[in-house]
Amino acid sequence: MKRTFDPSIKMVPGFERAVGLSMSIRCEALVAISNQVVVPLLITCDATNPWTWREIFATRNEIAATFRLKSSICRSNVDPFTRRCDSLFAMNLPIYVIDAFSKKPFAGNPAAVVPLDSAGQISDQARASIAEEMKHAETAYLAPRGGNEFDLRWFTPAVEVDLCGHATLASAHILWETARVADGAPIAFFTRSGKLTATRDGEKIVLDFPAEPVEPSALPFQVACLPAMVFSGRNRMDWFVEVESAAELRSLEPNFAEIERLGMRGLIVTSRGDEGYDFVSRFFAPQAGVPEDPVTGSAHCALAAYWAAKLGKDRMQAFQASERGGEVGVRLAGTRVELSGHAVTVLQGQLRL
Fold first, then answer.
1. What confidence score (pLDDT) does residue 90 get?
2. How deeply is 215 buried, as exposed, middle or buried, from its count of CB atoms within 10 A (0-12, 13-18, 19+)?
3. Could you tell me whether strands 336-341 and 204-210 are parallel, antiparallel, or unpaired per DSSP bridges?
4. Is 79 helix (H, G, I), strand (E, B) or coil?
5. What is the three-class DSSP state of 120?
6. Phi, psi of 112 (to 5 degrees)
7. I need a labelling partner for 161 at 20 to 30 A (CA). Which of 33, 41, 48, 353 fits?
8. What is the signed CA dihedral for 350, 110, 346, 155, rounded to 10 degrees?
9. Which residues are known to be catalytic?
10. Hey, is 311 helix, strand or coil?
């Protein structure tokens, strides 16, 4: 006899009817086809249905969740369309690796960027696991809001963070490069730190970020690896130290165990510039799973405000003196900071979840 598991499901635009044949039993299914993934919503068969598709798979996210929670379905049943269970549950997500604040590959700060179809497409646990797998300082997740607006979140291998410059730069770069946004059109990101924007200035990407000024504050204990300090302070995210010279900053050998004990997100160390730069810096964040970050855009939200006051100028060129190194253009504009730099894509692939 004919059996329907959920007759309440309706045919909706964008869905198609498909016919599968398995075990000599003819079945008709209402399915969604998205990115070559077949999503069965309703199966009717001419005899008792030999499969146990009792859930309604309305999105690929729900498919993945069902696969994790009810893997016995996949082990004991066959997809009537392909005779393979894994093809039904696979979720392929695009992923890119971009070197930010650099004109060339293998310099600047690498960030992974994962564009999603929607904010709920994958869980926070999945986001954290992907970031841990990628092992970059940050993995960014983009979800469209409509037009040129996107939700943006950043995960280190250990935690989700409130603000990240280089992964935002990388996100803007990939949106333009892959034509998800028209080349050069302004982009708005909605984040834990409010609305951030990205625009183009020639070959450079310009980010509009909040200034994160520091207030004087003594470190909670003496950090033996630091040279003599000119200033110490903190903002809502990081500890901040100025040392006497760029030579001392460049030769600093960090004790990550000591720095981790400071708490907060991390430690910014800076000095007056050399080699034509207005100031130089390094950033250490073992607390967040990033021992030394190659180039840290969000740290320059503090550095811009600090050095603008000391140098009496609002436009500056900075260098982060990590092993990879990177150049950051900064401009202080009241309570906002413009960060500018280049980016280059070094990897494109697919995550299979």
1. 53
2. exposed
3. antiparallel
4. coil
5. coil
6. -90, 140
7. 353
8. 10
9. 138
10. helix
Q: Which residues contact 202 (CB under 8 A, 6 or more apart)?
A: none
From 17, 34, 35, select the one nearest 81 (Cα to Cα): 17
Identify the band that residue 163 occupies on the pLDDT scale cut at 50, 70 and 90: very high
Does 136 score more than 80 pLDDT?
A: yes
Residue pair 98/110 in contact (Cβ under 8 Å)? The answer is yes
Q: Residues with Cβ < 8 Å from 144, sequence gap 6 or more?
A: 117, 118, 150, 151, 180
Rg (Cα) of the chain, in Å, rounded?
25
CA distance 121 to 64: 9
CA distance 165 to 340: 10
SS3 state of residue 293: strand
Rounded to an integer, what distance in angstroms lies between the CA atom of residue 266 and that of residue 288? 7
Q: How far is CA 242 from the centre of its chain?
A: 29
Q: Residues 6 or more apart from 146 whose CB is under 8 A from it?
A: none
CA angle 182, 183, 185 (to 5 degrees): 70
- Taking the C-alpha atoms of residue 300 and residue 308, their distance in angstroms, rounded to an integer, is 11
* CA within 13 Å, CB half, 193: 21
Nearest-angstrom CA–CA distance, 20 and 152: 40
Which one-letter DSSP state was computed for residue 276? T
- Residues 147 and 181: their CA atoms lie apart, in Å, by 8
Backbone dihedral angles phi then psi of residue 6, each to the nearest 5 degrees = -145, 90
Q: Which amino acid is at 185?
A: A
* Cβ–Cβ under 8 Å, residues 276 and 317: yes
Which residue's structure tokens are 């080349």?
183
Distance of alpha carbon 240 from alpha carbon 160, whole angstroms = 21
Q: Which letter, b or e, does each residue of 190-199 get, where b requires 16 or more Cβ atoms within 10 Å of its Cβ?
A: bbebeebbbb
Is the Cβ–Cβ distance between 258 and 291 less than 8 Å? no
251-280 tens-digit pLDDT: 999 999 999 999 999 999 999 999 999 999
Helices (H), 184-261: 246-251, 256-261
